[in-house]
Amino acid sequence: MEKKLTFLGIETSCDETASSVVQENDDGTAKVLSNVISSQIKEHEKFGGVVPEIAARSHLENIELVIQEALDKSKKKISDIDGIAATAGPGLVVCLNIGYNIGKSIAAFENKTFLPINHLEGHALSPSIENKISYPYLLLLVSGGHSQFLIIKDLDNYKRIGTTIDDAVGEAFDKTAKILNLGYPGGPCVEKFSKLGDNNKYTLPLPIINRSGCNLSLAGLKTDVLRKSKNLMTEQDRYDLAASFQEAINKILSKKSEIAMKEFLSESSNNSINYFVVAGGVASNETIRKSLKNICLKMNFKPIFPSKEFCGDNAAMIAWAGIQRFKKKLFNTKNEAVKPRWPLDLKAPFLKGSGLKL
Ligand SMILES: Nc1ncnc2c1ncn2[C@@H]1O[C@H](COP(=O)(O)OP(=O)(O)OP(=O)(O)O)[C@@H](O)[C@H]1O
Ligand SMILES: [Mg+2]
């Protein structure tokens, strides 16, 4: 019997110190032997957002313990591990350096292969941890820093067909939570308090909804939430505005996902199953899952959502990307330093700020 590859993953791109041991299964999925995540919510809560220097210090304090816990829980020793994969970007450089350097050092000391991993590739491949999926598939990546539609043609072959031209969806959730004083971290708090609100109470803008293509724009929506928040009278008004915001996001994502599905089919129509895969922290949101499942039903796509533990930042997705790259001998050897910006589709134009062309 062939030996199953086992990787140690390390993730420190933002405010989660994470480590995981992952083993490949025979059917193309993964067995997650441990998935340790030490969150820094308490440290950043009082600032209402991530403070890079505080995040980096916290990673430094916790990283060894987190890696040790991941090994202990997996019941593996470092000598049982075939390779070490660490996030090398995109993210906060001071934070990335902590996980990257410790991963590289352990690998050098133990004589193991080291793989620098693109955090977004981790999110993009995360649905195949638990699901047998074949390439190509359509991916909606909705996280704190990115919101993109990508055609995942194969490992290391990604075509971006849509992106946000301003705020990411998770960022819009976080800012709305801050404006409405709903708590930190923003996304889960907006979802929680929306349950108490009327999602039809406020009419909010749906920027570029009628424009062709599947780019997204959320800055105008957030600004209108800010404007309307000035006239709120009661606690109930806050919940109603949160619910109306979440409803607006649902409408935008539904409409643009439908367009993305049509684009996907025009490029690749001979698949036995058309998969629509949703990944990143925002993919945890139940109302978003529900509306996107409805669009899949309408368009005859099979929806795939990772379990919530693999939606937000985690190191299992990094170890899993490492295993897949190792098997295909794609070692990212040119990436010798961490990178704050590292798009999955290097040919896609930069559409924010001065790169914005509408
Ligand atoms: N239930 C939820 N509803 C809406 N948004 C959510 C929910 N849970 C988490 N989020 C949002 O997901 C984001 C965090 O996701 P993730 O950890 O994937 O992003 P990130 O790592 O900060 O950014 P990136 O992956 O783009 O570098 C935050 O903006 C958070 O508010
Ligand atoms: Mg992330």
Could you provide a short overview of the structure?
With 358 residues, the chain is α/β, with parallel strands linked by helices. The chain has ten helices and ten strands. Helix 5 runs parallel beside helix 7 and helix 5 runs antiparallel to helix 8 (235-267).
What are the SSEs and their pairings?
Layout: E1 6-11, E2 16-24, E3 30-39, H1 41-45, H2 52-74, E4 83-89, H3 93-110, E5 113-118, H4 119-125, E6 137-142, E7 147-154, E8 157-163, H5 169-179, H6 186-194, H7 219-229, H8 235-267, E9 275-279, H9 286-299, E10 302-304, H10 316-327
Parallel strand pairs: 1-4, 4-5, 6-9, 9-10
Antiparallel strand pairs: 1-2, 2-3, 6-7, 7-8
Helix pairs in contact: 2-3, 4-10, 5-6, 5-7, 5-8, 6-8, 7-8, 8-9
Bound molecules: adenosine-5'-triphosphate and magnesium ion.
Number of strands: 10
Specify Rg, calculated over alpha carbons.
20 Å
User: How would you name the CATH homologous superfamily of the largest domain?
Assistant: ATPase, nucleotide binding domain
Task: Report the order of strands and helices.
Answer: EEEHHEHEHEEEHHHHEHEH
Give the biggest sheet: 5 strands, mixed
How many independent structural domains? 2
What does this 3D model show about the protein?
The protein has 358 residues and is an alpha/beta fold. The protein has two domains: 6-128 and 309-355, Nucleotidyltransferase, domain 5 (2-Layer Sandwich); 135-305, Nucleotidyltransferase, domain 5. 40% of the residues lie in helices and 19% in strands. The chain contains ten helices and ten strands. It has helices spanning 41-45, 52-74, 93-110, 119-125, 169-179, 186-194, 219-229, 235-267, 286-299, 316-327, and strands at residues 6-11, 16-24, 30-39, 83-89, 113-118, 137-142, 147-154, 157-163, 275-279, 302-304. It has a five-stranded mixed sheet with strand order 3-2-1-4-5, with helices on both faces. It has a five-stranded mixed sheet with strand order 8-7-6-9-10. A hairpin with a 4-residue loop joins β6 (137-142) and β7 (147-154). The termini are far apart. The structure holds adenosine-5'-triphosphate and magnesium ion. The site of magnesium ion has 4 residues, from α4.
